[in-house]
UniProtKB/TrEMBL annotation:
Gene3D superfamilies: alpha/beta hydrolase. Residues 46-242 form the BD-FAE-like domain. Residues 1-21 form the signal peptide. It comes from Mucilaginibacter pedocola. One of its GO terms (molecular function) is hydrolase activity. This is BD-FAE-like domain-containing protein. Keywords: Hydrolase, Signal. It comes from the Bacteria.
């Protein structure tokens, strides 16, 4: 038997199935991108659909210092791991702050993330999702974006005629930038989002450990204690603030986990993403 044609057919079939599982779509209807200048980047969502959806969904925001998005190391591997567990994943290509391409650059990433939540909730039936089981995940500067979503969900510049809730049901933060305080922040991320006019008021507003309330969503956090890119204190301060407001929080720390380990920490045997998926699937985010 010549096995080559069989293998070729199998490869083509697998490719076809994978292509069906992923669908990219523009985040906004044509001509309605908030704050965009002519020729600006078009933000998009890429849908990763599991073979059998369990009703849970996560929007994924890669990091990149608010300069770019590290999808290959962070977002895409995380999406693939989520769908293997039956969780529908949405990779968000949010716009990074750039005054040449947008007005009010500090508002743009948050508005894009809120639009992703709005879109997923309003189209939940299409993707076999429970709109009350929607989380959002962020790495590094994407973690700052996600913590901003969790802290400022009641404030938006987004058109929201259906009054769709922009509060995610849970947050997942991976080595996140949380604070813009001088002693804690990641300088590039802060400069890109709110620079060059870095005022004390802006620092406080975007230091999300200072913005936690009783309504901040339950949060899963992972960070390396030896992270030399973003200090682990960012995560510790946010976790402490959540505890003070009686918000469920799960803190998964690595003794060794340099910045940017993505979906898999090669320096560790136990992987945060497996523990995190268990936290999502078993509804531990609902527990006090």
């Amino acid at each position: 038997m010549n096995i080559r044609p069989f293998l070729l057919t199998l490869t083509l079939l697998c490719s076809a199935l994978c292509s069906v599982a992923q669908q990219s779509l523009p985040l906004y209807p044509e001509g309605q991108i908030p704050f965009a200048k002519p020729g600006a980047e078009i933000p998009k969502l890429t849908v990763y659909a599991p073979a059998k959806a369990n009703g849970k969904a996560v929007i994924v925001c890669s990091g990149g210092s608010y300069v770019g998005r590290a999808n290959d190391v962070e977002g895409i591997p995380a999406c693939k791991k989520l769908i293997a567990a039956g969780i529908t994943a949405f990779l968000l290509d949010y716009r990074v702050p750039d005054p040449a391409k947008m007005d009010h650059k500090e508002l743009v990433p948050l508005t894009d993330a809120q639009r992703a939540i709005q879109y997923v909730r309003e189209n939940a039936a299409k993707y076999h999702i429970d709109p009350q089981q929607l989380g959002i995940m962020g790495f590094s500067a994407g973690g700052h974006l996600v913590s901003t979503v969790g802290a400022h969900f009641n404030k938006t510049e987004l058109s929201n005629p259906k009054n769709t809730s922009l509060r995610p049901n849970f947050l997942v933060l991976i080595y996140p930038v949380i604070s813009f305080a001088d002693s804690l922040t990641h300088q590039t991320s802060r400069e890109r989002l709110i620079g060059p006019d870095i005022t004390p008021e802006r620092i406080t507003y975007y230091s999300n450990e200072l913005q936690v309330t009783d309504d901040t969503p339950p949060t899963y956090i992972t960070h390396g204690m030896d992270d030399s890119g973003v200090k682990v204190a960012n995560s510790l301060y946010f976790a402490a603030a959540l505890k003070q407001h009686h918000v469920p929080v799960e803190l998964f720390l690595y003794a060794k986990g340099e910045h940017g380990y993505g979906a898999y920490n090669k320096a560790a045997q136990t992987q945060w993403i497996d523990d995190c998926i268990n936290w999502i699937l078993k509804d531990r985010w609902k527990q006090n």
